[in-house]
Amino acid sequence: MARLERPRRRTPPDPVAVLRGHRAAVNDACFHPSLPLLFSGAADGELRAWDTASHRTASSVWAHAGTAGVYSVAAGAGLGNKVISQGRDGTCKCWVIEEAGLSRRPLLTIKTSTYHFCKMSLVKSPSTHSAREGSSWPTSDVEPQRVTIEENAESHVVNTTEGAQEHGEGITSSGQNLMAIAGQESSQVELWDITSARKIISLPQSSSANTDHPTKQKGLCMAVQAFTPSDSAGYVNILSSYEDGSTLWWDIRKPGLPLSPVKYHSESALSIAIDGSCNGGISGGADDKVVMFTLDHQKGVFTLRKEIELERPGIAGTSIRPDNKIAATAGWDHRIRVYNYKEML
């Protein structure tokens, strides 16, 4: 009897470039939407901007002092010439991209007083994929200047108690200058206005977040993804994933309870990403599967599209390309897996 052979896997491609310079573990990285820049944050608190054309460091600052480190970095079209860094010191900082590189001091520091492992999320809006336009950026062989950012630096510092609005009505936005993070309460999610450095809302609302609230039993919030559906009139929606493997879908107009709960993972749900149309996404966790789903905006419910079993458990990160053609996951086994997202939906 003929023996069936497994189809051969493609040989992984070689990297286009290897960027060396960080002295500690790199926790996060993101591209600028229009400039040829890549931002990376490390466990020792260093934030770097890399020139993607020359593959050299364009600028570097010590963003978060001590052992806090930079846990997350984010840039988006709505932020323009700014980048946000999130540290384990309970702060998020906004940096300006100047001609000489990153600003010496943060434009503002938001004291969220949140200490966790959940990365922030800028609000994603449905958009048509457009290629990045190349532009020049100064580079040099000289090691970039590093500036220690002191806690009492001359920047705008805002506390969580200032200007918090515990309601969702009347709050509309294109989402360009908003970010979602896990809240001070381990099971809560907070939405912040980056421009004014004000907390807009907590989900569930503080008045609703009693000991009997369903989110209390779900454990820590491990991942968030904020977005504005095309038919939401500008109101922000948030997907939040939890320690018990569940994911909740929130609409800030109904902050008391989520629109819909699902539990796709048998262990902690660690990462979630929504696609460019904001109609579906991909989720990964500590178990041995990757989940792809769609969102029914009329009914406010999830629909499971595909489950992919893994040989080795653990997915720490997920991402979907803006044109919705491919999705990628970052595994605990140090492997990046790329999927044909368009065909799977």
Automatic annotation (TrEMBL):
Keyword Repeat: yes
Regions crossing the membrane: none
InterPro entries cross-referenced by the UniProt entry: WD40/YVTN_repeat-like_dom_sf, WD40_repeat_dom_sf, WD40_rpt
Matches recorded under SMART domains: WD40
Keyword Repeat annotated: yes
Keywords: Repeat, WD repeat
Gene3D superfamilies: YVTN repeat-like/Quinoprotein amine dehydrogenase (2.130.10.10)
Domain of life: Eukaryota
Pfam families: WD40
Protein name, entry field: Protein DECREASED SIZE EXCLUSION LIMIT 1
Source organism per UniProt: Urochloa decumbens
Source taxonomy: Eukaryota, Viridiplantae, Streptophyta, Embryophyta, Tracheophyta
